[in-house]
Specification:
about 300 residues; mainly alpha; 14 helices; cell membrane; Putative membrane protein; Caa3_assmbl_CtaG-rel
């Protein structure tokens, strides 16, 4: 149970989240074209609450945990960077440009699915967030259905194929056209990419040995290899294509003066090259954790 002081901090956080969110939503509705680029293009309560409550619970958790139980400063900073980056991709004018340029869309999804998820996972903020959230939420997170669902999604044979499968699925040309013209499907695509990125990279960068970590070092290396090769293939196909697979961006109207094929090629290169670098970075983290566990 939280103390009266803790409850006071909780109410301040929730009050800020609701009031500030309401103000931002109203501003976006009344002055959609006059706000700075860091304001939402289309306000989303789920993204706003995920960000404000996630960061709020993190800071409350830091305050409530003993110093020896807190993660190192650098982990907190990378977690905050990942959360703010996700918000920027989903709730600033970056989102508007991503709806009109394929290569910007791929850069946004690279952040959500790769770098942003990687940073959030690397922050190891779960324990801190649990300490900061309402006490009645923790049993819900530990409920058997939730645990069973996570066990399936993060199974060693499921996680890497789900990770790369989502990338391919949302880029199926016919489906992609439908998604870019349907706001609900568009939001679903972004949420699945962001959450799947966090879940996958949490498996890879977990500093604990196996067990209690879900994956051994060998399986982590295999998972990185499994996601890497299909990404390279997809990136190569798109970056070398001679046909525009995604005419929806011409329908929406490109906001940067660029041919459709150049837009497609740059998007393919973003899938190909940064994705490869992320795999190398992840492997380095895995090897560093292995060495640390052996020395410890």
């Amino acid at each position: 149970m939280h103390s009266a002081r803790d409850l006071h901090h909780d109410f301040l956080l929730y009050g800020f989240a609701v009031i500030a969110g309401g103000v931002v939503e109203r501003l976006c509705a009344v002055f959609p074209a006059d706000l700075p680029a860091f304001f939402p293009w289309e306000f989303s309560w789920p993204v706003w609450l995920f960000t404000t409550l996630g960061l709020g619970w993190f800071f409350l958790g830091l305050k409530r945990l003993a110093p020896e139980d807190r993660p190192p400063l650098w982990r907190g900073l990378v977690f905050i960077a990942g959360m703010l980056g996700n918000y920027a991709v989903l709730q600033t004018h970056i989102d508007y440009v991503a709806q009109h340029m394929f290569f910007i869309h791929r850069a946004a999804h690279f952040w959500l699915h790769h770098l942003g998820g990687f940073l959030i996972a690397l922050g190891l903020a779960g324990k801190v967030i649990r300490a900061g959230m309402p006490f009645w939420l923790n049993p819900m997170l530990d409920a058997k259905p939730i645990r069973a669902c996570l066990a399936i999604l993060q199974h060693k044979l499921v996680a890497p194929f789900l990770f790369v499968g989502l990338l391919y699925f949302w880029l199926l040309p016919g489906l992609h056209t439908r998604v870019m013209l349907d706001r609900e499907l568009y939001d679903l695509m972004n949420w699945t990419m962001a959450l799947n990125g966090i879940m996958f990279w949490s498996l890879i960068v977990d500093p604990r040995p196996h067990p209690p970590a879900r994956l051994s070092v060998l399986w982590r290396a295999l998972a990185i290899l499994i996601i890497e090769l299909p990404q390279m293939a997809l990136g190569a196909i798109l970056s070398l294509a001679e046909v525009d697979f995604y005419p929806v961006y011409a329908i929406c109207g490109r906001v940067i003066d660029m041919t459709a094929l150049n837009d497609l090629h740059y998007g393919g290169l973003i899938i190909w090259l940064p994705g490869t670098l992320m795999s190398f970075l992840a492997m380095i983290v895995v090897l560093m954790n292995l060495r640390r566990n052996e020395e410890g």
